[in-house]
Amino acid sequence: MKVGVDYYPEHWDRAVWQQDAKDMKAAGIKVVRLAEFAWSRLEPREEVYDFQWLDDAIAVLASEGLEIVLGTPTATPPHWLADGYPDVLPIDSKKQPMYKGVRWHRCYNSPSLRRYTRVIVEKLARHYAGNPAVIGWQTDNEMVANDCHCDACTAGFRQWLERKYSTLDNLNKEWGTVVWSGEYTAWSQVTTPLGGSPHQNPSFLLDFQRFSSDSVADFNKFQADILRTHCPDHFVTHNIWGYPVVTDNYDLFESMDFAAVDYYPATDQNNDAKARNYLGALTLDLTRGIKQKNFWVMEQLSGTPGCWFPMSRTPFPGMIRAHAWQTVSRGADVVVHFRWRTARIGAEQFWHGLLDHHGVPGRRFEEFKRFASELNMLSGLLDGTVVQNQVAMLYSHEQNNALRIQPQVDGFDYLANFKKLHQSFVRQGVGTDVLNWTSKVSDYKLVIAPSLYLEDPLVVQKLADYVEAGGTLVLTTRTGVKNMNNVCLPTRLPGALREIAGVIVDEYDPVGHDAQRIAMFDANTGCMQWCDLLEPSTAKPIAHYDSEYFKGRPAITCNPAGKGRVYYIGTVLDDAGYDALFGHIVRETGIPAFAGLPSGVEVSIRQSGDKRYMFVLNLTKRTHTVHLENHQRWRNAFTGGMASPDILLEQGGVEILMSAGA
Amino acid sequence: MKVGVDYYPEHWDRAVWQQDAKDMKAAGIKVVRLAEFAWSRLEPREEVYDFQWLDDAIAVLASEGLEIVLGTPTATPPHWLADGYPDVLPIDSKKQPMYKGVRWHRCYNSPSLRRYTRVIVEKLARHYAGNPAVIGWQTDNEMVANDCHCDACTAGFRQWLERKYSTLDNLNKEWGTVVWSGEYTAWSQVTTPLGGSPHQNPSFLLDFQRFSSDSVADFNKFQADILRTHCPDHFVTHNIWGYPVVTDNYDLFESMDFAAVDYYPATDQNNDAKARNYLGALTLDLTRGIKQKNFWVMEQLSGTPGCWFPMSRTPFPGMIRAHAWQTVSRGADVVVHFRWRTARIGAEQFWHGLLDHHGVPGRRFEEFKRFASELNMLSGLLDGTVVQNQVAMLYSHEQNNALRIQPQVDGFDYLANFKKLHQSFVRQGVGTDVLNWTSKVSDYKLVIAPSLYLEDPLVVQKLADYVEAGGTLVLTTRTGVKNMNNVCLPTRLPGALREIAGVIVDEYDPVGHDAQRIAMFDANTGCMQWCDLLEPSTAKPIAHYDSEYFKGRPAITCNPAGKGRVYYIGTVLDDAGYDALFGHIVRETGIPAFAGLPSGVEVSIRQSGDKRYMFVLNLTKRTHTVHLENHQRWRNAFTGGMASPDILLEQGGVEILMSAGA
Amino acid sequence: MKVGVDYYPEHWDRAVWQQDAKDMKAAGIKVVRLAEFAWSRLEPREEVYDFQWLDDAIAVLASEGLEIVLGTPTATPPHWLADGYPDVLPIDSKKQPMYKGVRWHRCYNSPSLRRYTRVIVEKLARHYAGNPAVIGWQTDNEMVANDCHCDACTAGFRQWLERKYSTLDNLNKEWGTVVWSGEYTAWSQVTTPLGGSPHQNPSFLLDFQRFSSDSVADFNKFQADILRTHCPDHFVTHNIWGYPVVTDNYDLFESMDFAAVDYYPATDQNNDAKARNYLGALTLDLTRGIKQKNFWVMEQLSGTPGCWFPMSRTPFPGMIRAHAWQTVSRGADVVVHFRWRTARIGAEQFWHGLLDHHGVPGRRFEEFKRFASELNMLSGLLDGTVVQNQVAMLYSHEQNNALRIQPQVDGFDYLANFKKLHQSFVRQGVGTDVLNWTSKVSDYKLVIAPSLYLEDPLVVQKLADYVEAGGTLVLTTRTGVKNMNNVCLPTRLPGALREIAGVIVDEYDPVGHDAQRIAMFDANTGCMQWCDLLEPSTAKPIAHYDSEYFKGRPAITCNPAGKGRVYYIGTVLDDAGYDALFGHIVRETGIPAFAGLPSGVEVSIRQSGDKRYMFVLNLTKRTHTVHLENHQRWRNAFTGGMASPDILLEQGGVEILMSAGA
User: Fold this and answer.
1) Which CATH architecture describes the domain A391-589?
2) What does the DSSP 8-state code read for residue B644?
3) Residues of A numbered 469-488 whose beta carbons fall under 8 angstroms of chain B's beta carbons: which are they?
4) pTM for this model (two decimals)
């Protein structure tokens, strides 16, 4: 368990390096990330290399005992590369280049990019393989799939399709190109989806997104292979920006040792629109689930974000510390704060770091220091602990992509709906593991599988087996709609899962924002977006619609199947509805919850064998008191004293408890 | 009178064709439309033709007695055509191509498109001329004017202008190109309106829209001529999408036998924004007016629409049937439902047909079947009946185009204002015929001519003659502003019609959303958008403004002229205002109305000689009771029983009455 | 002091010229602007010139004693020029041309434009140098900086940078191109900011805006030099459109004799969004400040504006006259109304002039005539009077450009915030001179210097000297953030001014629309956008925050410095807050104010020696009574009678008073 910072020695006078290194050490920092955008410094001219400055910077930092993570600089091809080899630039769907000069101006499939990436990464790997301060690598930076239409992508996409479908006849058949006379008669007719039209064939669009995702993963593996060849003792990871992304992060991290994420929780808590875009706890649960183990935060909130867009609010007192502990509570082993000094130059001048432009430590820095010293104090206890939950939620980039190609109804968003479900568990103090939808689920008491819109027969079989063996499975509307080629299935909904769900969808009404009512457990709650009108065969209705022409028809059912049971939710509930439903299921399943959590107060547990550490985090600006059941079983992790039954949490307050036996 | 469906045999296994044909027949279907997007199946490779599959499909359908309408497939040029002959693709105002792969990727003026269209249409026409199952043709699909800037369009536009203006000097003078130094000194300087700028000369923009409209009409006639040459016994029509369109539908249907429309009434009745885009009854009255006779619905609502955009609500129980009867009540003789099976493949997977993806008939299918059986039952009575109203509304694509080039004020929209006027008549149960503004009006008791912004001397003369002979004419604000070349006239408003209107506009205030008040018939109502401050000469004010600095000035006048009278409305009224005004005018003119209709309940009458059939349609989700005056004069069309004085209409309820003597 | 009109004889039949000239004279008009868009008439074909029509028009106008201002026609290159020499067209950031056919389709750096501009301007200058009716020139029309990326601009930008930075090493260092590997190693790598991305380096973006601004100023000087060579007795000016603009108007007018502005106050007073875009009095104060002397209005509101966009409301009765007097009250010596006749042709058909399309004088014309006769009556008194205020506000295009490149927070806008400050002085009847931020300020009692975000050491020194000598200076938040190369400074905020401000910003919170409270002078008021939490050293807090975690921390301070004092406002106040604060400062500084002005009633004074003329203008649609203190010191300027202590002002009411001794 360590704390780190992101640092850009190349942006600052060498005169400050040594003092910076001393100050980092004094602040409790152990790890420093360097050089992920420094290509023009490392290779100022084609085939002219200069690693001396980086050697020097590492030496200075190492002199204070700091460990180094190096970034490969491929996110920012220098001018000589983009100008000399224009195939480096991505081409948009109107055949216009993405001009150089910012970031991301590189096509993962560009032959020139690959060639020069190989050289610079290999040289860096060879050079730093033996440097004892260097512990590992970050590939590139925040890679996401391009929407690129260059010649290399066009040719690559054709090859990708040929590998998948073998013949054009198969492709025509699987995509249904007969619609609107889209049948191909020569491979040369197949292009990327030019024109940016959403009207294109959805099977075509989904395969192109898969190809684009595969291109990123392949570029990442390409770098990882080079690094592993020369630096067998170093770890390799990559830092993702967050969600949603077209890129399949499970594929992207196939070649990585562990996951890492850049985490910037919303500082504008009164701004619903901004807050909604942040997934908070879900981002961390998703990240932990990528490799199903602990992870790094490679960039962590240190001040107000803002660049070419307006700044948000500065983190309120306590916020930086509380969210740093939040990442630890959900599985982060190393938290690297972005960034040591706020940039004085370039486009990110107002993306604030720990130190302001003037460099004098202030409130935010002090708060960070408090977190660092606390983490260092507890790291002996927390090392080796992991997060182990009894509820699994199945996430799928495939579903997200397919549902963005064809948004089902106003307000329907796979990820936003996923967050609604996840938040209900957060509110009830129930930990959730968020896994790839193809992952093994047999160890969980409860599995939530939202909108399995594309139907994968292997997943269907896995879930059937899980239920057969006694598991509780929750399915939701828009399940079993399509096959994996994004073609609608002829089966009654919810498709192949209708057997274990014991129900079919008789018809549906995409109600959108035309809100409806539902009656469940003697209460009446709201629902929206979509209404499946259910026809149970063996299932038992547990909620009925209470509005319009479908009043009285089943909306949610529960079906006993094998030794387990399957819930089917035919609509999207409001928060109160989800809390009532999942409260019921959690109690029924015997999964522990934390009752009475105020909104915005989160609980998570790390454990190792019998040792359990419970984090109670007030992520709000209000003061809250939390009642702790069985408080005598818990001690304060810092003081060792007995936990109080009533925990007072100021704004940003953090309470860390350990099980009495730990 | 027949019911039909749109069917795509090429999308489905041949195995289902026969059963589908049987099921269609059993459902009461008589007509099937085929093949309007099937170019890649009919000509899979350049000059390689395959009509066998279509022959087979027709044979199967014909074996159940079904009649066939064939679409020409020109809306979807196949890859071999777009790739081999890129002049097929439209070019946008920034000189970028519209890429292939969806629909509409064809310039009507493209020489290659014309060449390959001629061949495929001619081959189809020859092949199916003698097929007894085939009764007629639909050209292309939902054609609208392109905004194309390709070489063929540029050259074509120049020729079009040369035909119109003979010399550049004339063109310069008529367009007023002297403004901003836009004078042309060589024909080569004349381009299409590149850059997409709304700041271009409005005379130039309007002529380009006319040219674009003429291009569609010419392409349509090009196909019709081929079809008529080879299939003299078949009808030829085209299916329009709706309104507004740049294309002048009156010109477009010059070469057609009758009009056809695709009709998808808004299913989201609680969503004002979506509902506003649908014209409902006005679409049907417009369509009937195109050829001033009965028409076809070539695609009729069968389920929720939705594709690349979110789905809307599913039609509520009764809605499919009620709207099918609505089309009949306003002049449809054949109603073809879109579509038999919901697509499993391609971009329109969620544009729901009669059968869902699973193919099992459900609520919507049953409702359709009820309509089909009812129509088949009544077709003996209704055959030969037509809609004949006493009110004519004059619609003009020219005005719509000109007013979109220069929107007069916030909120002002020619078509939306037209709909406001039309809806007032619908609410009062007064049938309206909506005609081209150049059509003959002498048979009507009342003529509504909204915003004759462009002044056509022939129309002026026609209206003057009409009033002279005793007609009642209603004019509105923004009349007589421009000549036909989109140049402002030097006459006082309302231009040449000011004589018969007996009023001039002293000045005007474009009030936009700055709502104003009006005093009329001892009541006070709202007005908006535009306020003409009127100076009557011979006219009598019947309403005055009641707000701001123009309080007390006349807003609406009535002028006796010849044997008739002319109303001039100098503003845009709210619904209550229009109902009061038109209620007054209708009573004064002796036009029959249907008093006390609840909002959303529509009445229309078809007749033939003495026989009259009245349709009372509840298009809402609420239950309504309608009081029928002189109920003893009416009988129920299905049972023959005496009509009740109080008609109870459930949601989507339909009552069809026939005159006692019918 | 004169009244004029803009006139386009080339748009009208020669038959009307003579009557128009007579009517102008009868209406009190003295000046007519001609020909600023008439290139295609003056040079119909390359090197074919025709000035005869203009000679004739001038002769006709001169026969009625009218004086002529000629526009150079370079805003509208004719077709032969744009087609024959395509380098004339600007190229956008995606490398697409701005097509000809509207206006502005000319790059100021285009060699062909320069070549043909030189010829036509020289020919015009030679031809009209000796025409006694011609008194001066307007260059081009409403020039603003292009965002052009053509070859000439690319080359020009490189040269501009080379002149500024000498070497690429300097440029790399000053711009901080090391960020994201943006270091240049060859001048050929430097382009304009292609792609239109806001993510580009802000130092790069700001220098490109300076280059673009310099390009306009250079093109303007290029024309002025030609005109001055041949017409030494004529004045040369240019008409600006308004604010904000990238172009530095102080630079642009360096080569001009006096400033001129086109003034269209908002007619939609109930439409906040539209009204907000107009700066009203601030536009006039800014214009007067450009050359720090009286100016011309070259286009003045005469009717509703509207073209390709919807029309606004027509000016309410009194509005045209009141705003014409407003321009005079704030320093206009000549008011040229746009335009004599409303265009019947071209894109500006609905930008209404004094006469409507029909040409019959109406209410607006009569109102204009009243203004003209009043001005002619008073011109003897007003000639030679100027506006001299005791408050200076420092405006900076540099700050505006830099703050638009990096908007600080939601709602923060340099110009909108400037207007908020300015409006507070307008409400209190305190005149303000608005000067370039680099101008001399020593003559003022109070200097307001909003958001000196970019820090210019010369300005810092000037302000320090000013305060030292006894001046009162008001600084606001976001001062001292950056150096002139748009790089963040390492000093504590407010940068080099923190010494005389006696305060530093401890930290800041970009609160945006998350409104906060402030306690000041025993009252409580709102603040927004940004909160600096202040740490005074020698300053005294005069307001504290009253909300959230920074409750009780200083928000506004006042520091005695030298013989003067410095206020620092760490946030953006609401109107009540500014009125309280500036009311306090104005009283403290002994600057005269006009108490009790109703909202929308403005006061301004022109003077010459002892003679003072006070204009009291009701710019609203409501009636107001204004109490005049010391009324016995004032006389009515028209009647010479004693001023009443209570002035009744109808909507658009105007009262002009002269000091009793004048």
Assistant:
1) 3-Layer(aba) Sandwich (3.40)
2) P
3) 487-488
4) 0.96
